[in-house]
Amino acid sequence: MSIFEYNGSALVAMVGKNCFAIASDRRLGVQLQTIATDFQKIYKIHEKLFIGLSGLATDAQTLYQRLVFRHKLYQLREERDMKPETFASLVSAILYEKRFGPYFCQPVIAGLGDEDKPFICTMDSIGAKELAKDFVVAGTASESLYGACESMFKPDMDAEELFETISQALLSSVDRDCLSGWGGHVYVVTPTEVTERILKGRMD
Amino acid sequence: MESVFGLVGKDFAIVVADSSAVHSILLHKTNEDKIMLLDSHKLMGASGETGDRAQFTEYIQKNVALYQFRNGIPLTTAAAANFTRGELATALRKNPYMVNIILAGYDKETGPSLYFIDYIASLHKLDKAAFGYGSYFALSMMDRHYQRDMTVEEAVNLVDKVIMEIRSRLVVAPPNFVIKIVDKDGAREYAWRESIKDAPVIAS
């Protein structure tokens, strides 16, 4: 029994043409038992920056609270929002601080940086950043997600097509993982708007 | 293993706990009250390590009271739940409390609410929740029969169905249960469901 597989999660982020999408499953479980089917794993840091936290739910909640705190302080001091690259470095530093007693979380960060250029990255539980140009995945369903994304992804998709692709990749991957699923939660972010949608998949 | 469960109805919330105090193979008493009244409109049902349960719930109760003394207004249920989660999370990597909590409350502005708090400080707001071996039966019965906005009578009917299921299907089923309710008139004991009555303690 791995501590990363205690609660169960699936997270994916994809880059499109001047937009990005980030999606998660909705299950909160305690090993084999499902506790909730509406658990939030993707959090908004600011209008153009989202972070998804997979892994142990308690650490995801603690980490999110710490990150919001740090970002609010940053906003007060700098009088502007954090760039996604900066935020990723912040998350990496906070995770590495706990190198010998880590948060059992794998974050997926997605945002629009300078000139609304999409930025995605993931990292492991001790803050090793993994930048990607196309997609990043995390969670108990990550292996299935890698396969699904690799085959379904095309560069420069627009927001509508990106939504379809990421939804199909998420739903087909969580169907092969017993610890994640019970629907999906997808955010599609363009420079002008944020669209949040709930997916209905196999509810098991 | 201790069973605690709870559900939200129309303008009220109910929390039910078994009332056996067990040490290894010995049943010390069958009228142990595991649902603490945090303040006039909050209930905290707890299951887990006996000492931790008693100490931790009392600690939360006193801190909720302190907030009211200092600030002149009571905490909302959400605030009390987040405070409890914070205390569990802080202690988690030092000296964890092995207590699972179902916190139910009634707020004038938002109505009844119920929070599930794991012993590792995972927090989630739910309509129905359960802990312990009894949860396998409680969650299934509630999934089948629960509806939104149930009346007190319907909810107690459901509670009795769950207790019947636990009594008949759990090999080490607890004999007695206590039911507490919280609504706009406050938190109070609703009923006991006893199949064994302890002899009353005679003062010497």
Automatic annotation (TrEMBL), chain A:
PROSITE patterns: PROTEASOME_BETA_1, PROTEASOME_BETA_2. Transmembrane segments: none annotated. It is found in: Cytoplasm; Nucleus. GO terms for cellular component: cytoplasm; nucleus; proteasome core complex, beta-subunit complex. The keyword Nucleus applies. It comes from the Eukaryota. It holds the Pfam family Proteasome. The keyword Cytoplasm applies. Keywords: Cytoplasm, Nucleus, Proteasome. One of its GO terms (biological process) is proteasome-mediated ubiquitin-dependent protein catabolic process. Its main location: cytoplasm. Belongs to the peptidase T1B family. Component of the proteasome complex. Non-catalytic component of the proteasome, a multicatalytic proteinase complex which is characterized by its ability to cleave peptides with Arg, Phe, Tyr, Leu, and Glu adjacent to the leaving group at neutral or slightly basic pH. The proteasome has an ATP-dependent proteolytic activity. This is Proteasome subunit beta. It comes from Olea europaea subsp. europaea.
TrEMBL record, chain B:
InterPro entries: Ntn_hydrolases_N, Proteasome_alpha, Proteasome_beta2, Proteasome_sua/b, Proteasome_suB-type. The keyword Phosphoprotein does not apply. PROSITE patterns: PROTEASOME_BETA_2. Keywords: Cytoplasm, Nucleus, Proteasome. It is found in: Cytoplasm; Nucleus. GO terms for biological process: proteasomal protein catabolic process. Its main location: cytoplasm. Pfam families: Proteasome. One of its GO terms (cellular component) is nucleus. Component of the 20S core complex of the 26S proteasome. The 26S proteasome is composed of a core protease (CP), known as the 20S proteasome, capped at one or both ends by the 19S regulatory particle (RP/PA700). The 20S proteasome core is composed of 28 subunits that are arranged in four stacked rings, resulting in a barrel-shaped structure. The two end rings are each formed by seven alpha subunits, and the two central rings are each formed by seven beta subunits. The catalytic chamber with the active sites is on the inside of the barrel. PANTHER family: PROTEASOME SUBUNIT ALPHA/BETA (PTHR11599). Belongs to the peptidase T1B family. Component of the proteasome, a multicatalytic proteinase complex which is characterized by its ability to cleave peptides with Arg, Phe, Tyr, Leu, and Glu adjacent to the leaving group at neutral or slightly basic pH. The proteasome has an ATP-dependent proteolytic activity. This is Proteasome subunit beta. It comes from Olea europaea subsp. europaea.
